[in-house]
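task queued by scheduler; priority normal; single chain, no ligands, no partner chains; default sampling; output format set to structure tokens
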Amino acid sequence: MHITIVGTGYVGLVTGSCFAEFGHTVTCVDTDSDKIDRLHNGIIPIYEPGLDLLVKKNVEEGRLHFTTELASAVPEADAVFLAVGTPSSRRGDGYADLSYIYQAAREVAVHLQGYTVLVDKSTVPVGTARQVARIIRETNPLADFDVASNPEFLREGAAISDFMRPDRIVIGVESPQAAAILREIYKPLYRRDIPLVSTTIETAELAKYAANAFLAVKISFINEIANVCEAVNANVVDLAKAIGMDGRIGSKFLHPGPGYGGSCFPKDTLALMRIVQEYGEHIRIVEAAVEVNAAQKARMVRKIREMVGGNEAGKTIAFLGLTFKPETDDMRDAPAITIIPALLEKGARIMAHDPKGMAEAQKFLPVAVEYANNAYEAAQDADCLVLLTEWNQYRALDLSRLKNAMKAPIFVDLRNVYDPVTMQRAGFVYTGVGRK
């Protein structure tokens, strides 16, 4: 089938590349000519493991194309996926900014020829597909089309695996013709017995928000339990293992830390709260999770401050990891953005290292932050070392070399990567999250 993807960001580029891998002919469109030029030259604008090779393979085999011109990409398309950004509104009220979606709909409408399915791939509030349909009808009254919702459930760092081996595919459709086209697009997965949930458009639109909100609640829950564990001298790692073995609970997302971040959980929980409020309802569990997450980041600042004697002024604090999670260069709403400036403001000197995120980090963090080439360089003469993101290369550090590099052997493990007894035997003053 012929598929057009509008937007070559994280979702659009992964989706387009994977559809091309299925055997479809895919054209990815973006208004950013510099980004398209870089893609033509094999330069991937984001870091996602395996994506560069997937793009290269499908471009070379003639199934994946990039352009800035909707006029050449839309008319032959059986389906047009809208995968543009839906960031939080600039007003700071938590509402999703749908201006990019609506503008894309207007521009696509002009070029529609023959029956086409317009698919919202971006995470959008309930009712967005109806508005997209209205915009297309107003812009091109002769257009023959249906709208559908097909939310993505991709984890940064594992997006290709998630796309190729998903837990489920969700499509929100109203017409049999639109359903048939989407089923045909996903046939390679459908034949592998991947469940396909076909539902109403509104249900599909809400599904992504509900899934992310549930996971955010689970993270905030274990973070609060971790705080309780510290108070009563319990071990949250053992506790999480014990409750995670219950099949009704599961072990995933039961890892305490400095709070969730990234492009989805912070934005989507706030957007869901606003959607619910518009309908005169409440979603208090999600509201509490958002509050707990903000408090957790502040608690991590206090933890670091206490470990350096209650006053960080004049102290050198080294950070290992800056991105919100490993295997991505995404800094959006990363805990580092909250924690590091708070320490800088009180007079700390910050040294930092991240395997993939330092270029992005410089866009989000104060200019006073200094960057190192590796973990040991970051630790040189540090009064405290903070493990903030659990990249694999930080999991087996040479503890003797690390200790010798530091001015004071204080190790704050915000991801509970290391064993406390091992760290103490190695001569570190160690603390984790939810355990002594």
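post-processing summary
- The chain has two domains: 2-199, 238-431.
- The longest helix spans residues 201-232.
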